[in-house]
Amino acid sequence: MDVKTQHSLFRGKLPTLLSTLIVSMLFASASAVSYAADEEAAEEADFEEVIVTGSRTGKALNKIPGAVSIISESEIARDLSLTSDLTAMLSRTVPGYGQSKQQMDRRGETLRGRTALRLLDGVPQGSPLRDGSRDSIFTDMGIIQRIEVINGPSATEGIGASGGIINYITKTPKENGTSVQISTQYRSQFHTDSDSWRVAVNASHKTDDYDILVAGSFAETGIAYSGDGNTIGIGTSGSDRDSKGNNLFIKAGANFGDGDEQRIEISHSRFILECQCRYSILIEFPEFNGHLDHGVPIKSQKKQPLGSKASFNDFVQTTLTYTNNDLFGGALQIQLYDADQAMRFQAELSGSKQDPLFAPVGTLLEQSEITAQKKGIRSSWSTDSLFGSEGIGLQVGADLVEDIAQQRFALTDRVWVPPMEYTSFAPFAQVSIDMDSFTVSAGVRYEDGTLNIEDFTTSYFRKRKFVNGGKINYGEWLPNFGAIWRVSDQWSVFASYSKGFTLPNAGFALRKISCNTAPIVEGCPNDTPTSVTDLGDLDAIIIDNVEVGFSWTGEDGKFGVSIFESTSDLGDGVKVVDGEFQLDRSPQEIQGIEISGSYNLSEDISLTAVYSSITGKTPFVQDGPLDKDLSVFNLNPNKLNASLDWQFSPEGNVVLGAQRFFNRDINEGKSGEEHIKGATLFDLAVNYQVGEGTLSLGIDNLLDKVYFPPTAQVSFYKNYILGRGREVSIGYTVKY
Question: DSSP assignment of 642-672, as one string?
């Protein structure tokens, strides 16, 4: 079924829109970008100088045909002064990013309605093979220089980027000499056990030949309260509240060769966030939708949670990078990486985890762990003057990756999802041509991968069915095209097409395999043998994405609009069946518009805003028309965020922010009916130079609004949880 022909917002309009843009302006663009109104942002504001590394092309921002958001170091610092919620800044600053859930589980925090690939210095965090929706909390933000968000499906970084790429780029010493930065912060909601604190130290040394950065942080976070003074429930996947965490990061680099054109750099990161386990979820109505049906938000109780092991996120990563900026007239980069990632979930007495071999059914307490190990090589060579012709660019390279993921029951050491090994070799080539005010680019990547799954036996809940393992081969050509026309010094327009590639959450597909007829305790001797090679649920997800847009950059501001449509014959959604998560492979069609801009109202006051509206369809019935609106776990309601920055003196500034997500009613009177009630939230951040350091004051949810995040307002497993109330933070950062 060709989903691109059904129920499209652009059906009949997209060709006209494209041809109109081609004839009237050709295509150009520079993307929707967010910058802080400070000195650092002003230095970066020249589009020619902003190099976006997450695109794998190392292109200047005004030569990338698509929507890109750059979150600067000062914006990261502002967010840290407001909240410990590390994805809140994405919701505030990136138009197509979903509203923060304020839990460890980020299911529903999509980018353009699909899953984003999160990277730390280009290395994937988590695994799409068994996505636990907890890969957004993997480092301390104090080591991050900036965040690059490339909206839309992409294959440039391999599998997983069905919604786009979020690349967290770590700091590198910039100035010669030795410096030490110490940051302290205290945060509270002024309720029992709501106090939190964080201490971070960054020490760096740089000479002309080498540099080194050593950073460490320690934090404890208290329980959260809603605006009505009640504790907020800890999600079933755990919470970043009632937790303790620490981070160690080391990066060392050396420059050598004629003119220091070569560099070798090694970095190591170790981050762990662990439950303090003073609070546990309080379920007053145990039926599936009990709290939602009774209108009673889920709370937390001061009681140690069930289970003998604490839930955690544990991420370890080592990278070795070599660059040579003068090799055959171009630049070579080779990166080797090794990453181990583990996530342990909270214990439950759920039916899917029972086994009478260990305890009577209904009494077995169990918790699970997801582990992923990655090894890979990323390589590329690029030039902007191929064969000495200035303006003709070429990039070629190849990626080699091994990704092993599995899920086990932590207390009884049983297999839930067997080891899955994905290996791939992906060569790519990209050509670009600059012709005065025009930039045209085209490229292709070939994903040549193999998924190898071991033989395994399903759980007791799935009737102990034996499943033959095997190898599944994937091969896909993934082209991209783009064009930009810088109409004038102020205006530019663009258009692009790209094809994305990812694998489904294979763990869900394997967990649901069951016997057809046999009694639950006897296995499946009379069933037809099942092999993983026969499972359609493991087919790859191929996404076609078309995007057009324009931008304006003036002396006092900037403004950008992007319109997109992405379609896939197979989806990557999740549904709950018999109390268990399962894949929803129905086709999807998503369209949207994103708008962002900033304007200097005066020399000292600036205004920034982002808006997004995204709609999407999927079938009500298999092989039917695309007539069902996608759930809030795919598409969040329309949102409008704005902030006003006042530099009231050379020593200080104040930022007032507002976030609005709107009401939305879909599928009324049908399956998948949802009614989302919107809310407007305000926050305030103040920074002031005191002595040798900066004193910061942050107030999140300034008006102490009582509200539900969008994803908490629909039927889902233990999901009816209020948003966080007012929280006040005070911090001091000093640099020596």
Answer: EEEEEEEETTEEEEEEEEEE--EEESTTSTT
**Confidence band for 48, pLDDT divided at 50, 70 and 90:** very low
Helix (H, G, I), strand (E, B) or coil at 467: strand
Q: Residue 494 forms beta bridges with which residues? A: 484, 549
Distances in Å between the alpha carbon of 381 and those of 349, 390, 400, 488, 693? 53, 17, 15, 31, 42
pLDDT reading at 105 higher than 70:
yes
Coil, helix or strand for 534? Answer: helix
Backbone torsions φ then ψ of 16, nearest 5 degrees: -65, -45
Give yes or no for a contact between 150 and 72, defined as CB atoms under 8 angstroms apart. no
As a whole number of angstroms, the distance between CA 360 and CA 376 comes to 44
The b-or-e profile of 154-167 (16+ CB within 10 A means b, else e) is bbbbbbbbbbbbbb
Give how far Cα 488 sits from Cα of 24, 35, 595, Å: 13, 22, 20
Predicted pLDDT of residue 473:
96
Amino acid at 502: T
Q: What gap in Å lies between CA 242 and CA 733, rounded to an integer?
A: 24
Rounded-to-integer distance, Cα 676 and Cα 713, Å: 6
654: CB partners within 8 A, 6+ apart? 645, 646, 648, 684, 685, 686, 687
Q: Which residues lie closer than 8 Å to 15 by C-beta, 6 or more apart?
A: none
Cβ–Cβ under 8 Å, residues 132 and 377: no
In tens, the pLDDT along 197-237 reads 999 999 999 999 999 999 999 999 999 999 999 999 988 78
DSSP 8-state class, residue 111: B
Q: What is the CATH number of the domain that holds 293?
A: 2.40.170.20
Domain that holds residue 303: 3-735
Which amino acid belongs to residue 455? Answer: D
pLDDT score at 581: 67
pLDDT band at 658 (very low <50, low <70, confident <90, very high): very high
Total tally of structural domains belonging to the chain: 1
Query: Which residue type does 401 have?
Result: V
Q: Which residues pair with 390 in a beta bridge?
A: none
